[in-house]
Automatic annotation (TrEMBL):
This is Oxidoreductase. Residues 7-152 form the NADPH-dependent FMN reductase-like domain. Pfam families: FMN_red (PF03358). GO terms for molecular function: FMN binding; oxidoreductase activity. Transmembrane segments: none annotated. GO terms for cellular component: cytosol. InterPro entries: Flavoprotein-like_sf (IPR029039), FMN_Rdtase-like_dom (IPR005025), NAD(P)H-dep_reductase (IPR050712).
């Protein structure tokens, strides 16, 4: 009997096509252990959260996003840091996915965080803000390892993460996420 594939949904917090955070997720796809599939989901097409739209029936893009989260066993979020916090498009996506709270696909969903920035502090504050947001959605955020990638411009070549140490840290984060996810599997 073969074991079921573990599905991870990777969400880049940046809309920029050549973002370092998308690059982290592409590296994670390459480094995923056997039996793990990592799919990227772009939040670019989600409309701004609007409770009126939610009440009349969420747009198809929102339903598709929520279904992708529901199908995933875990989430891997790679976020930049804007003004010491979470980028607006990522927060908007989480707001849509969190509604209505009782049936949100984020409830009891394992989540791992990582992020890259060109600054020297990585994405510490953005990831801290995400931890607070995910406490509200009752998501299970992996406590360790942390992955704050700083001075990202020096670690990528032609959009590909080439820094061996960072690639190894992503591999370790993925292994920890898999173990964390299996703890919560039905």
């Amino acid at each position: 009997m073969t074991e079921r594939v573990l599905r991870i949904l990777g969400i880049p917090g940046s809309l920029r096509r050549e973002s370092y955070n998308r690059g982290l997720l592409l590296a994670a796809q390459e480094l995923a252990p056997p039996g793990v599939e990592l799919e990227l989901y772009e939040v670019r097409e989600l409309p701004l959260y609007d409770e009126d739209l939610e009440r009349t029936g969420p747009p198809d893009q929102v339903l598709h996003f929520k279904q992708a989260i529901a199908r995933a066993d875990a989430l891997l979020i790679a976020t930049p840091e804007y003004n010491w916090s979470v980028p607006g498009p990522l927060k908007n996506a989480i707001d849509w996915a969190s509604r209505p709270p009782a049936t949100s696909p984020l409830r009891r969903k394992p989540v791992a965080l990582m992020g890259a920035s060109t600054g020297i502090s990585g994405t510490i504050r953005a990831q801290l803000a995400l931890r607070q947001i995910f406490a509200s959605t009752e998501s299970y955020v992996l406590p360790k390892p942390d992955l704050f990638v700083r001075e990202a411009a020096t670690l990528f070549r032609d959009g590909r993460l080439v820094d061996r140490e960072t690639r190894e840290r992503i591999r370790q984060l993925l292994e920890a996420l898999v173990a964390w996810t299996l703890r919560f599997r039905d």
